[in-house]
Every structure is written in C-alpha cells, then in structure tokens.
Amino acid sequence: MNFSQRAANIKPSATLALANKAKEMKAQGIDVINLSVGEPDFKTPAHIKQAAIEAIQAGKADAYTAATGILPLREAIATYTNNDYQTNFTAKNVAVTVGGKLSLYALAQVLFEAGDEVLIPLPYWVSYGEQVKLAEAKPVFVAPALGNDKVSVVELEAKRTDKTKACIINSPQNPAGLIYSREELEAIGNWAVEHEIILIADDMYSKLVYNGNQFVSLLNLSDAIRKQTILVNGLSKAYAMTGWRVGYTVASEEVIQKLAAFLGHATSNLAAVSQYAALAALTGDQACVEEMRQAYEERLNTIYPQLVALPGFKFTKPQGAFYMFPNIRETLELTGFKSADDFAAALLEQAHVAVVVGSAFGMPDCIRISYATDLASLQEAVKRMKKFIEEYR
Ligand code: PLP
C-alpha cells in the first residue's frame, strides 16, 4: 500500500509499546507490575454510571447530538470553568470532544498549517508533536535551562520566530507532575500577548494537585492573557472516566464555531451516553474527586522518598498529576546500561516492572512511573527496582 507522507511521519505512541509488552507478559501468567499506564486505577464513581444507565433507559442516548455536545453539558462545563477560574463563559464558548485528545487534535487542524511553528516545552505529553505534524506544522521543542525543571520566557523567546503561532502549556504536567506558578504563567502569558502567540492550556490534571500546592490556570490571570488562551480539559483523569472519552475546549465563540465545523465532519459528536455521564459528573457530588486525589497524594508521599533514594535517581517531588519522572543518568552509569530505554526493557524482562521511557517525552535520560496503581503494588515495584539496580552495580 502506498501510504501518505503524513502517515509515514507519524510515530506510534511510545507510551503504548512497553504497556503492550507488559500486557502480553501478564497474559502469559507473569506477575508484572504495570507502572506505565496513564489512567486512574479507580472505577468511574457509581452515581456517574447510574446517570448513564438512566439516560440509556430514557432513550436519551439513542440519537446524534449537536456536534459540540448537548446544551446542558456545555452549560455545566461553562459554569464549572467559571467557578474554578473566575471567568464568564457560556455554552457558546464550549465544544465537547472525544477526549481532550480530540480537542487538541481538532485545534491543531483548525489553527495550524504548513509554515507554522508551535512551541512545546519539555518534557511534553506524547501526542502534542505528532498532532502538530499532522496539521503540517512544525513542533519546536523547548528545553528548560540547565538545572531547571520548567521552561521560562527566556527559553521560549530564544525559540520564537516570526512563524511561531502557538505554545502548548500543560500544568500540572504529564510526565513530571510539576505545576507552573502564577508568576511563571504570568510571564509566559504576557510574552504571548506581546507577540500574539496563541496559548493552548492543557489543564487535564488541574484537579490532581497535592500537598497544598496551588494550581493556577492561564485562564485565571489578566483579561489579555485569558483572551490569548484556549483551554483544553476533560473528565478522564479527575473522574476516573478514561473509557468514556469526555474532553472539551473552552474558547472564544469564533474558535468554537470552527471546531464545530471540523467536529461535524470528523466525529459528529461524543457518544450521547458519555455526555449524560459527564453531566452527572460535573453537576453531582464532587466528594469522589477529593477521595481519589487523597489516595494519589498518599501514594506520592509514601513512594517519592523511596524512589528518590534509589541509587542515582534524581527528580523534584511532583506537585500534581499522577506520575514521577526520575532522571536516571547516574543510575545508568552505576549499572552499565547504555540508555534508559535499555534499562526499562531489562527492568520489565527481569524484574517484571513496566515503566515508560523518557524518550517518549523528549527526555531520554528519564523514565516515567505512574502511581495510578495501588500502594501495595507500588511498594513491591520499588523493592524490585532496588534489587534490580543492586544486581547490576
Ligand atoms: N493531555 C495530557 C497531558 C494527558 O496526559 C492526556 C491523557 O493522557 C490527555 C491530554 C488526553 O486525555 P483524554 O483524551 O483521555 O481526555
């Protein structure tokens, strides 16, 4: 088959490669601890499932909906966003999509074209660069200054050209779990306003913030920065709803209208049943979100000291999301592995612990460890990693 150049250029999702291997090993009866997954280990809360069942039984889930979603859900998303970010959005500013992933993909399709450059700070979520390339634009990756975990305006400005169209800011971050402070975001926001660069704020993990750290959205700063920002969010992580595929964009009516046209041809709409589930999630009791957040926090606080004590593991304690992203350069030197990729492959093969390699996120000396897994398994995984490293020292 003669595939398009576009297809030839796509890198398959690297987060899935080791995860698939781990699944195969599990199927063979091997006791693999899978720390490669990017999804909550919790079940979707019962009241959300119940609302979906009721929607099906009432016949509400039988037909297409508007491309951008049912009105009550768009209203609920506007209210939810306004409450969190002190904004004034209405349903007209909201498009519901098949996961936050499709929000980001659709935005790339309606905003970018050949010749455009899009700034993407390191470490980045795996799909940003590929989605930008699928829109024929060029991803420009921006590394933090030496010794820093996050990029600042200095590094962004160094990569800015007259082709720079947008910059994608993810906070709390996947994979390092770090949060941009208000001051850092203000500086980035003002720089974007000055140079008319669109900011895409991926706030997917905004509800998963730990140990008194504060999350601030780009939407919650000055009016000028808010006007420059397009929000992407979703229910996958905070409500343990990855399978329901509920994401959304909040933006100006102009942007939403373009997205609506795109979505009308791409997916029509997110499955109606998922929309009713999402409505129940956003308008119902929020205690479930806090319960899950507390569980992640406990895991983080228990596991971080153990992981950072492993020989050569160096990383800042995450503030949000549910990943840790140690730099293991020194561990590689101690153990003789040539790369973190080799280390991760051997770790899976011999110690039966699956992680994701940092190269998937633009930082090849790191590995990503997800703590969306029960505490007992996490503790056992750390024990296995310690033994594995000792064996190679
Ligand atoms: N953005 C980030 C940073 C993510 O980690 C993910 C999922 O892993 C997404 C967006 C997309 O999530 P979903 O499509 O499930 O809403």
TrEMBL record:
Biological process according to GO: amino acid metabolic process
Cofactor(s) this protein requires: pyridoxal 5'-phosphate
Presence of the UniProt keyword Transferase in the record: yes
GO MF annotation: an example: transaminase activity
Residue ranges of domain Aminotransferase class I/classII large in the record: 31-384
Enzyme Commission number: 2.6.1.-
Sequence similarity: Belongs to the class-I pyridoxal-phosphate-dependent aminotransferase family.
Superkingdom field: Bacteria
SUPFAM superfamilies on file: PLP-dependent transferases (SSF53383)
CDD domains tied to this protein: AAT_like
Keywords: Aminotransferase, Pyridoxal phosphate, Transferase
Pfam families: Aminotran_1_2
InterPro entries: Aminotransferase_I/II_large, AspAT/PAT-like, NHTrfase_class1_PyrdxlP-BS, PyrdxlP-dep_Trfase, PyrdxlP-dep_Trfase_major, PyrdxlP-dep_Trfase_small
Enzyme class label: transferase
Protein's UniProt name: Aminotransferase
